[in-house]
Amino acid sequence: MAAGSEATIPKILAAGAGGEEGEHVKPFTPEKAKEIIMSLQQPAIFCNMVFDWPARHWNAKYLSEVLHGKRIRFRMGMKSISTGRTIVPQFETTCSYVEATLEEFLTWNCDQSSISGPFRDYDHSKFWAYADYKYFVSLFEDKTDIFQDVKWSDFGFPGRNGQESTLWIGSLGAHTPCHLDSYGCNLVFQVQGRKRWHLFPPEDTPFLYPTRIPYEESSVFSKINVVNPDLKRFPKFQKAQRHMVTLSPGQVLFVPRHWWHYVESIDPVTVSINSWIELEEDHLARVEEAITRMLVCALKTAENPQNTRAWLNPTEVEETSHEVNCCYLNAAVSAFFDRCRTSKVVEIQAVRTDGDHMKKEFNVCDHVEVGQTGSQNLTTGIGKPEATSHFGPDLVPVAQRSEEPPSQRGGMFESDGKDFDDKDGEHFGKLHCAKRQQIMSNSENAVEEEIVSNTTTVPSQTFISTDDLLDCLVNPQVTRIVAQLLIQRRSL
Q1: 244-264 in b/e burial notation, b at 16+ Cβ within 10 A?
Q2: What is the DSSP string of 98-115?
Q3: Is residue 268 packed enough to be buried (19+ CB in 10 Å), middle (13-18) or exposed (0-12)?
Q4: Region Disordered: which residues (predicted)?
Q5: Dihedral sign, Cα of residue 325, residue 326, residue 331, residue 333
Q6: What CATH number is attached to the domain comprising 190?
Q7: Are residues 155 and 209 in the same domain?
Q8: What one-character-per-residue DSSP string does 23-68 give?
């Protein structure tokens, strides 16, 4: 598939020689599917893998019957403003929330503006609704048999089903802010309607202006409205490699570790099911997340103890005390070493203050290179097979889009000159994540170069806020170095 075009995915199920539905044969065995998932380094769409899943019939109407009377939380966002121009995507801290049943959602979504009930204050022509991050174990707590309708075992993960899955139900325009997930890789099964995915590779992190405010464990947000970027404010975004695909019902999208993604619903009703697949790299990532949580909670709580909602994402129940966060950090480090003790003796690299490397051998995870800033800190030491050879009608790579950004083409969102931002609107002096495959000895030089580069511009005269400081302290590059130094200290 040529770069510069949105991925086109076949929609016809593969059939056996006789063409009967009962003769459908899946293109990949579970073992082969897992091999692809564990080796592929770019997003791709699996086709013809879920045609026999009971969950393929889980449209919103069906789910409203299964969950009859159950109230769930919907995130409400605005489609347009008074001028009629579509606004930019919204952080979850800026949205309103409604507790409603799926029946009430579907009635409202039929544009019945005169309805009463929980959606009465939200004009359907002006708002979208999104029931996002709905974990099966909470949603179907009294209907656990339904977990078997989802069969991730077909992708090589035996016993994995709805119990390890999340449900997403949205209306036209509902979207997830651009972010990367700190843990695992992601499999997304599209059940109803279509969603458009904008994806960026891990090495584009410096160009996406990462921030941890609002704070959500395991999510690093981008300050940029990637649909309508403000290139004057965020000039480095021009270097980002946008990949796009429209995911249709019956398809499963594979999102590799640390790929940035912005997702929007482009049909009246969309239903998706996903599962995050754990990876060896997650053990170190949990240490990094514990460091991040401790710093964010300490500084932001001290700044304004009475207003946590301004910086804590609604998906987080509450901020935790410093003592609790300290215990969490220690637990993450201990879990890292517990995992490592079951593995082989390998080298661990750490950077001294003078930039030299020292090496120490002890029982840790296979081929851990603490000191590498790349996304593959933990590897098995076994050469990964080349997965791209499996590309074809049943495994379609997501193409890079090379033409001008949506703001110049027109599209669902028209720019109003705004972007994702911290509440103070400051951007100067941020340190951004280095390229993923850069080793730590080089990353220190990269940090220095970044500082020099930033100081060549006209200095900001505004006050440095807590968020400015946090953007530097909990930048993914910085927390990785801190995590590596903590592990080195523990190993002495």
Answers
A1: bbbbbbbbbbbbbbbbbbbbb
A2: EEE-HHHHHHHHTT-TT-
A3: middle
A4: 400-419
A5: positive
A6: 2.60.120.650
A7: yes
A8: G---SS-HHHHHHHHHH--S-EEE-SSSTT-GGGG--HHHHHHHTT
Tokens for 470, please give them: 């946090």
Is 315 in contact with 216 (CB distance < 8 Å)? Answer: yes
Instruction: Say if 5 falls within a structural domain.
Output: no
Report percent pLDDT > 70 for the chain.
70
Query: What CA–CA distance (Å, rounded) separates 265 from 172?
Result: 5
In this predicted model, what pLDDT tens digit does every residue of 75-110 receive, in sequence order?
999 886 443 444 455 788 888 999 999 999 999 998
| pLDDT for the residue numbered 187 | 98
Q: Which domain holds residue 319?
A: 280-354+475-491
Task: Report yes or no on 227 lying in a domain.
Answer: yes
**Digit-coded pLDDT (tens) for 460-473:** 446 667 787 788 88
Note whether residue 23 is domain-resident. Answer: no
In a domain, 164, yes or no: yes
The number of folded domains in the chain is 2
Does one domain contain both 309 and 297?
A: yes
Domain check: are 235 and 249 in the same one?
yes
Backbone φ/ψ region at 425: left (φ over 0), alpha (ψ -120 to 50), beta: left
Sign for the CA dihedral angle at 298, 299, 303, 307 comes to negative
**Taking a C-beta distance cutoff of 8 angstroms, is the pair 133, 177 a contact?**
no
Q: Mean pLDDT over residues 168-189, rounded?
A: 96
Structure tokens at 10: 């076949």
Q: Are residues 43 and 141 in the same domain?
A: yes
C-alpha span between 436 and 30 (Å, rounded): 30
Q: Are both 218 and 95 inside the same structural domain?
A: yes
DSSP letter string over 318-331? Answer: ----HHHHHHHHHH
CA distance 142 to 247: 31
169 and 287 in one domain? no
Backbone angles phi and psi of 340, in degrees to 5:
-70, -30
Within 10 angstroms of residue 196's Cβ, the number of other Cβ atoms is 18
Contact indicator for 192, 58 with CB cutoff of 8 Å: yes
Domain boundary among 246, 278, 310: 278
123 and 214 share a domain? yes
- The alpha carbons of the chain give a radius of gyration, in whole angstroms, of 23
Q: Is the pLDDT of residue 447 over 60?
A: no
C-alpha span between 235 and 56 (Å, rounded): 42
How far CA 295 is from CA of 246, 455, 459, in Å, comes to 38, 26, 26
